[in-house]
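Reminder to self: keep the SMILES exactly as supplied, no canonicalising. Ligand is magnesium ion.
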Amino acid sequence: MTQEKPTIIYTLTDEAPMLATHAFLPVIRTFADAADINVATSDISVAARILAEFPERLTDEQKVTDNLAELGRLTQDPDTNIIKLPNISASVPQLHAAIKELQGKGYDIPDFPDNPKTEEEQAIRTRYTKCLGSAVNPVLREGNSDRRAPKAVKEYARKHPHSMGKWSMASRTHVAHMREGDFYHGEKSMTVKGDRKVRMELLTAAGETVVLKPEVSLTDGDVIDSMFMSKTALIEFYEEQMEDAYKTGVMFSLHVKATMMRVSHPIVFGHAVRTFYKEAFAKHGELFDELGVNVNNGLSDLYAKIETLPASKREEIVDDLHKCHEHRPELAMVDSARGISNFHSPSDVIVDASMPAMIRAGGKMYGADGRPKDTKAVNPESTFSRIYQEMVNFCKTNGAFDPTTMGTVPNVGLMAQKAEEYGSHDKTFEVPAAGVANITDNATGEVLLTQDVEEGDIWRLCIVKDAPIRDWVKLAVTRSRESGMPVVFWLDPYRPHENELIAKVHTYLKDHDTDGLDIQIMSQVRAIRYTMERLIRGLDTISATGNILRDYLTDLFPILELGTSAKMLSIVPLMAGGGLYETGAGGSAPKHVKQLIEENHLRWDSLGEFLALAVSLEDLGRKTDNAKALILAKTLDSATGKLLENNKGPSRNTGELDNRGSQFYLAMYWAQALAEQTEDADLAAKFAPLAATLAAQESAIVEELNKVQGDQVDIGGYYAPDAEKLAAVMRPSAIFNEALSSVQG
Ligand SMILES: NC(=O)C1=CN([C@@H]2O[C@H](COP(=O)(O)OP(=O)(O)OC[C@H]3O[C@@H](n4cnc5c(N)ncnc54)[C@H](OP(=O)(O)O)[C@@H]3O)[C@@H](O)[C@H]2O)C=CC1
Ligand SMILES: O=C(O)CCC(=O)C(=O)O
Ligand SMILES: [Mg+2]
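Structure tokens returned for the bound complex:
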């Protein structure tokens, strides 16, 4: 990636956003070219990341460079400007599927060793592990986050409210979380003095010393936490909750984030599955071990592994699993038509999206009969799940939120440099034996933090560096000043980690002029209560939160306010001076791909991209004194406003305007805005013909785009589709394509 010209790096990712990119890139390039801006692409799809791990097994033509590492380096360059689309954070079943697809395409990559037995297999697994879970975002997020609903988007939602389920006082839905033995209760925290190197070690009850992590570098002022979750307490909690749901006849659902918390949450998930089916596991446990069954990867792993057994044995196991259901509660379903439950795969139900979807639906999830039902929403970690219970209570008392009148809750998130729990994966361990878990200074042997742990507990070290905390406070003050909104720091003085942060927030607030600003610090439950009380009165409140709440709140409030987090502006001012522009705050909507393949309709909304691109152009224009780029940014924003005003977002229904149609309208409005502006006559002249052609051909183009819908399409793969087939599917309007290329030429 050479950068002679000012460059915007556009990431190529997976699933629905990647499909949309294939239609949108030619549009972007047509416009960017007019300001002499280069739009480079960087493929960081899970398929590309897998291939980049095994260059020695690929032919020269097949080799893929490690784009993610390169982008990671570029985050340290002040000129960097990256547009980052959502990508798959792969679960083990997804990794298997991607590997299989690539092998089928002639890439000689190895199988993923589920249970590595040799050193070679272990080495392969270690390489693949780099592609598991949330492997992209933490590398690129070298800044804190500023996520908000732009004014035009909020106004659109007020005028065209999405549907909201009804909440009733009689709803039996509630959130269940651990009350002891989880990370909240087993946490110790401190602010580090001086630079030091520490290790994580376990002194077992049997007198052995097991070094789990030999070296972690810490710098002066870092806040570190040693925290653990008790396996015994977790299993008891599940047992109680399953029993309670069964006795009271309420559905059971489990909400974790196994994709992001890629070490701890698969374990938390696996214990739920084993507890639910405990009789079947007691009976067949040994056989499951021999087969290498690992339900941390979901029940799908068990079903896949028992495939190799003789039919009679298989049936016996399936029968025994079914028998467990007789004395267990009904399970929430992911796909009731296909019998896929919440336990099938840990990446099917992801808490940041699943809890808001449930709350938006009036506290309902789908049961096995395809009907929406009240549910016991089990979120084992209490640290953050209490906010959901507070919101459930609030909705039961006040009814559903009203998108036509409610205020907005932007977020300033402490995210940079792998902040807090979201950076702890390489410092998270399933404790191999009971003992004392210590964070020990390598030079002096001083024990900084110590915990008593049991075998099977999950122990982790989380770090948040001082510079990001300082930057976070600054960003919160800046956003409050720019928006005129009050800021609440969601920090709980009773949680050791957050108590350390509170001290720093007080210190760093003194660096700023906060005169006239309303800045408060409240524990999570009080903060959400205060925010919701304001919200229903139409008042806006910025939430300044740590990394996990950043993730949760930027789905929660947008889904209630706007119907989706896809319409969020999601900016990451990189601490080194560059800009990372994320497109929306949600994921990659796998079910949208299914609809495209089956019916050639893509309901993915690229609004997040439109918003991100405008800010990216504006930033580039300012930094490189490129007046044309600034005009492109301004006109793109007005085109996006017009798109919303005229309701040209993608429809959910096949046969109606989809992603491609929406992009066409954006291009038309953008060209029109450029043709109409008077600041730059060249740009106006360049885009006037395109504006005229697109307007004249509007109905013909929309007709071309809509008439292809209804039938199956072949894009030549899921994880690594065929570029030509994709181009054909995503760019079906000859008139539109021709109009765009006439500008380029
Ligand atoms: N930044 C990132 O890279 C992120 C990546 N992910 C990854 O995405 C995948 C799916 O995650 P999941 O939690 O299911 O969340 P998604 O956000 O992909 O899906 C949840 C639902 O939100 C709606 N939605 C989200 N984005 C859009 C959009 N642009 N246009 C229209 N509707 C949208 C859709 O609902 P409906 O169709 O019913 O309207 C969708 O089914 C996982 O692999 C996850 O790890 C998740 C979050 C962020
Ligand atoms: O990286 C991921 O897996 C998800 C990130 C996410 O959900 C977010 O940042 O909102
Ligand atoms: Mg999220």
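Points to follow up:
DSSP finds 26 helices and 24 strands in the chain.
Residues 187-229+427-463 form one domain.
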